[in-house]
Amino acid sequence: MSDRRVEVIGPGRLGADDHKIWREIRAASGAPANPFLDPVFTSAVGLVRPRAEVAVLREDGVPVGYFPYERGFAGQGRAIGLGVSDSQGAVLRDGVRPDARALLRACALSSWEFDNLESGQDVFLPHTAEVLASPVVDLDEGFEHYARGLRAGSPGFLKQTLAKERRLARQAGEVRFEYDEADPGALRTLMRWKSAQYRRTGRRDRFAQEWITRLVELLARGEDPGCRGVLSVLYAGDRPVAAHFGLRSPTVLSWWFPAYDPAYGRYSPGLLLLLRMLEAAAAEGIEAVDLGSGPARYKESFKTRDLRVYEGAVVVPGPGGAVHRLRREPVRAARRFVRDRPRLARTAARALAELGRVRDR
């Protein structure tokens, strides 16, 4: 009979062997090589979030699984990088399926919250509250094959987008695209644009949170092919007009922080950037671009299919679990109520935008 144990460590204690085993387990599972579920992302979060931890599941001393999370008040846990991580879950060898609540007890957690749990996470799926669509662009057959499908499905959309690119070149200067821009000034510009966009739409400014800014800067400097940042910039003349910072693995690119200069909004620079980025990513060997969950009309135009991701929480009976329910369930219920009513959702979006305008006065 094998000896099964759970050891809780800080992400900084994950060694080269752990990274190797983690990736071998992920590869054997057949799951997409999403960079958010790579050990490099967990390690990076550990450098900016001091309460990040990893439960290492061992059989006879050998790692057979990794469960990254962050610890909060009263033992309430959350997915590693919750709020910015677009793919969450545990990394478990085939045949290893612990009970979710037993795993939390081994970590001294009273709950574990997730909002982008990947499909196939059978340990946690019974604790799902909502199922969300995460649009994906498939590029495994090359960009030209994708572009033919885009023309067939949305001929007017592609034609209008390319016409705007030509008009931008005529009126603002030669259009140039850099897939992997190394200029740190371009990253600062992107974060400034994104902060302004958050405020303009009445949403919480993620880059006002120091840990998120530090995480992005840290990943931007990374060079590990399993998970590294890619800054893509669209220029008109010598001026940046749109940019995106995302994470990539050898085969998957995650669409993460896109923004553009509103002064060039009439040219749809964000759409131009995404189109050129898809072309460059395909040339770099990227097989899929995950656009992430959350409603956006442009995602519907570009996507080839949807992944399913899940929102919910595992709650252990007891005082800590009761605290989680009191804190989170009313918020989730209110959000679901609005999201399931398109007219109310549009009204809420307009109200947020008006709040953003008031804030900027």
From TrEMBL:
Keywords: Acyltransferase, Transferase. Its EC number is 2.3.1.-. One of its GO terms (molecular function) is acyltransferase activity. It holds the Pfam family Acetyltransf_6. Residues 159-300 form the BioF2-like acetyltransferase domain. Signal peptide: none annotated. InterPro entries: Acyl_CoA_acyltransferase, BioF2-like_GNAT_dom. It is an enzyme of class 2 (transferase). This is GNAT family N-acetyltransferase. The lineage of its organism: Bacteria, Bacillati, Actinomycetota, Actinomycetes, Kitasatosporales.
